[in-house]
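Worked example (supplementary).
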Amino acid sequence: MKTIPPQCPEPETVKYWKSIDQLENAPEFNTWLEREFPDGASENKGDFNRRDFVKLMGASLSMAGIGVLGSGCRKPEQNIYPFAKLPDDYIHGKAKYYATAMPTRGSAMPLLVRSDDGRPTKVEGNPEYPDSNGGTDTFAQASVLSVYDPDRAQRFAIGGSDASRAKAFDALNELARNAAGKQGQGLAFLVERSSSPSLVRLAQATKQKLPQAKWFAYDAVDFDIHRQAASLGAGKSVTPYFRFDQAKAILSLDCDFIGSENDTYLHCRNFARGRGVKKAGDTMNRLYSVEPLMTQTGMSADHRLRVAGSQVIAVAAAIAAKLGVAVDASKFPLPAHVKPAWIEECAKDLAANKGTALVVAGYRQPFAVHLIANAINAALGANGKTVQFRETPDLGEGNIAQLAQALNGGQVETLVILGGNPGYTAPADLDWSTTQRKAKNVIRLGYYEDETFAATDIHIPAAHYLEAWGDARTADGTFVPVQPLIQPLFGGLSEIEVLAFFAGVEPSGYKIARETFGGDDEAWKKYLHDGFIAGTALKPIDVQFNPAALGQALAQASIGAPNKDQLEVIFTRDYKLDDGRWANNAWLMELPDPVTKMSWDNAIHISRKTAAELGLKNAQIVDVELNGRKVRGGVWVVPGQADYTLGLSLGFGREKGGRIANFNGAKTGFNFYPLRTTQTGNIAVGAKIAATSQTYSFACTQDHWSLEGRTIIREANLKDFNEHPDFAKKFDFPEPPGGNQSLYPNPLDWKRDATHQWGMAIDLSQCVGCNACTIACQSENNIPTVGKDQVRRGREMHWLRIDRYFSGNPELAKSHNALTPEQGQYLEEWIDDPQAVNQPMMCQHCEAAPCENVCPVNATVHDQEGLNLMVYNRCVGTRYCSNNCPWKVRRFNYFDYSKRPIENLYKPTTTFKVTKREDEWELLKLVKNPDVTVRMRGVMEKCTFCVQRIEAAKITTKVAAGQSAPKPVADGVIKTACQQVCPAEAIVFGNINDPKSAVSLLKASPRNYTTLEFLNTIPRLTYLARIRNPNPAMPDYYDMPLTAKAYFEKAGHHDAHEGAAGAGTNGVEKKGAH
Amino acid sequence: MSDVFPKWTNKLPLKIAVGVVLVGAAVTAGAWYYLTPKYSRVGYQPIQPVPFSHATHAGQMGMDCRYCHSTVEKSWYANIPAANVCMNCHNQVLKDDPRLALIRESAATGKPVPWVQIHRTPDYAYFNHSVHVTRGVGCVDCHGRIDQMEVVAQAQPLSMAFCLDCHRNPAAAIRPADKVTDLAWTNSPAQQKLFGEKAIKDWKVQALDNCSACHR
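After joint prediction of all chains, the assembly is encoded as:
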């Protein structure tokens, strides 16, 4: 007998779409959907078929059985090695946490890092730091894996060959002595941006000692432009600090403050706090975004304007002129497609929010745009309120072009490179590897023996920030320690330790950091314990902007006019690899890009119109030529991108990056640095594209896990929410004639007496899709990476994924007959300005779980606290559970990904022991969380709600209670890894039995809804509907979010407020044939 | 009849008989091997590098288990003492005894003593000492009369069935806090029933037989 599933109220054609293929209804996509598992996943097409396999296995098993019985060898003898002298406070099995900070370019992220038996295993944000909620970002989460990177520089090298530490130290001392003798003549330092007070102190000491030495700074992605621009206007070195929490109206001028600027963890939190409305009448911030590429900020924006990167200045100038800033906007004509009303109304809204408005310009934009933003902020009274300025030391470094000039002029005898990889990231016209070689001695502190290594005389292995002492200042200037958790694994040094040779102090990071701190030992201990010193945030100062600086910048500025033959290229920080520094980090490499959902690759991002005009197909390989330089890459059509722009993300295509960056000996992704010169900067117009006949195969996760356009995302505008706070329920399917019965039994119906009933709520209004939760989950739960080939087969193992949906304007869609499947439909106009939504998706922990009922071996069962458990030892790998999971959140371990070499999964083997290369395995096993089982092949796995954290908390309360009744675990004590990391505070976990718990309060919100509620599986994970806050006066205003519009339109009702019930019934009729 | 039963069927009964015998032998051998306590290593008594006698220390002298196994109430792991713990006494007592040579060497050089592990749960079972010991499960229940063992041997199978026996009926094993490390303490069945049931109620002891109790 076939069970007929409940019918679903979905539109008959797809309205939410996750990929171009889906929109097209391409045959490949439908095959993908209809198959339980991707092609080839469940059959063996080789010569060696299943029958042969069973025969052979049967034979070998019986042989093995005889062997075991015969020899009688049982469990192997194992030893316990206790300490000879137990260290103080050491308890084996109890993790310790140390406060530290991750230095970023010119800032830092305060952290609390878990240490198991002396090895750092998990990074958390420092929740006690006043300007943090314990949130971090993807880079901080993944940084712990880099400690155990087997391709790290592991030796001191002189002239490319091994040298002892002592010998390298001697050589350094010798160079320092020589330099001191000549007052530093001929000595040059190349540094990266840093906020470390110790580094500043040593640099100043060095400058005093070696006054002739020259200083240069280079970062391929340089956030220092915020400081430089503010300083230009202010007349002294000041850094802006944006207070998104104070802002009600935000205008982003190509500033991706949620995704690719510095301190995103902070901006996400502050921005998201203004988005999570609780009840009708609550206020909400509004975000206008003007940008060329689809960014995370653009995906969160209420109004988004697509403008080429070189034309952002026109929009900025026009808005500034409307707000009374002295700008000659006529020099920068608005692009034709920009409606004047957009400018007008946006300016009006900003003006209406005087004192609570904020304009930010992105690091990609030139000085002029930054100065316009500063001027608007000044005009809007934002200074001191939504943007604060702090005095910052300016070391007055030169730039890399000046360094190249000095090198070419023979003025540099000794070059000291402190971090960075200029051999890969330097502008192409400087021909860096040759230029660098012009110095007689090149000393380089590097984390890898990479592209820069070849032209280096003394190579010093760099210590990871979790291995070295140091300090830093956070975004608001608070003094934070960088405290090591482990001795440098390979004896590496930190920047300050190398600099110490030249400053003439002992190269001991601890002593340097201690001396910078000063104070008594008690204060020092408190500083290390807390991870910050309260009250050391730099005082905001009053800044008067000099209009002459703006005038000057505007006089030098120009506006680009990209077209089909003169394309604009935009070099951008990669969401995963930054400027290439994380290229050998497998977690980041495999992480799907938040916009394209592309894993293990980057691409040339392009708009559909540009692709159409140039006759390009998605994934076609093209050559991009700019000023006689050429790069090759695959194109990828990205909805919402400005026309005639090419988005090129940096960091891929490494020559010499390690086993991940050079997976299987090939370059992973495309290197776009060869196109980037000192002239082009971040944005340049004038590129040409020449198509080739080849097609690239990208590993993109966006076709996977499709939900076929059901109403799993529910949205409304703030206005509608205020009028109908319970709008989310109106998307629910009406109760079917038989009543709301589940197809499956609910094990909790028999027994629901446990103190705790766990549940989770995710606020879609606050989620910005930053991906930090995915990596946090990977780190906490020992989730393996699988490699590009496996991702292409849909076998990525992430327990938590971010589903990203686009929605187009249904009216435009209809006028273009877009509702019928048709080849090439993705080239239709209506995808140009989509709205986007992010939804974190993981196991829903259904009470009446579909997966549990189809498992033949009881490997997935419920516990009394409502967790859907996975018992790995029982699992025999039928995969029925995954087949029956409506949310597709279960992951099957096809190979022993944790232990086997992912570059060589298909190699036939004759032994049972196939492990990763020894160096890799010895290091990588150190990063594992000892509280979580490392799963092996043939086992299904999925989100457990971090059961290890739940059990640990329960055990703590029980141990504390001893022989008395334990108290329930207090609310907020258990934070799942995803909740802990979430900078936007979108994820809340807790006990739903306790009506006062944070999660219960959220679940009581009128916005709370269940995905696929008509299945009646009673998920413990619910979502809070998303609220948008568009401005009704804007020309691109929609009276309801496009997802809702499409839903109601399909249902035959335009009025959202009465249409919900009708929508459901209509849906039934239409779904009948499905 | 040869049409119905071809010639090869003549030998079929013999083949079946041989097959039955073989399968029977395999089942017997399997049961013999896997279902005996020997499989779960009850009685496993390896030779330790230092002939430490629990009978002397814990039995005769009455030392508390927690003097040496000091983390048992704090961590999932009950530690083997560091050599310097032995030396607290043995720098006075038997300070030149050759049997203690390894301990002295360890304390002096920092080289650990390679004790042989006896009690072992699989890696996927997350047994936690602290919660058992503080909530009234006696050491003796899993480890037996250690205080009578010259050389420690495994007393219980420590299999999942063994754990579940107690987890399904904790009232039968639960004991007062001060008797947890008292290996000789026993209770009459009637008193134990009374105490156990009261403790279950007052301390809110749950019969944890969910998978998540031990497997993560």
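Two points are worth noting when inspecting this output. Residues 50-71 of chain A form the longest helix (22 residues). Chain A has a mean pLDDT of 86.
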